[in-house]
Amino acid sequence: MKIRVHSKGVILAGKAWEIREKLREYTVKHTLIKEWIDSAEAAATPEKVRLRRIK
Question: In terms of domain of life, where is this protein from (predicted)?
């Protein structure tokens, strides 16, 4: 099962029963595809972290 979320949409690849199961799982968390995309993009962009040299 492969799930790819990008800015233009979502690609689900796998067996039919796997896709149905994942869609049921994600409908609990997100009501719209746009919400799913936005949350995936937010998780993918890391916050700025200050790096320090450790001696």
Answer: Bacteria
23, 15 Cβ separation under 8 angstroms: no
User: What CA–CA distance (Å, rounded) separates 30 from 11?
Assistant: 16
| Beta strands 2-6 and 9-13, pairing class | antiparallel
pLDDT, mean of residues 20-30 = 90
CA distances from 14 to 38, 49, 53 (A): 23, 37, 45
Look up the pTM and report it. 0.65
> What is the separation, in whole angstroms, between the first and last Cα of the chain?
44
Question: The tokens 């450790």 sit on which residue?
Answer: 54
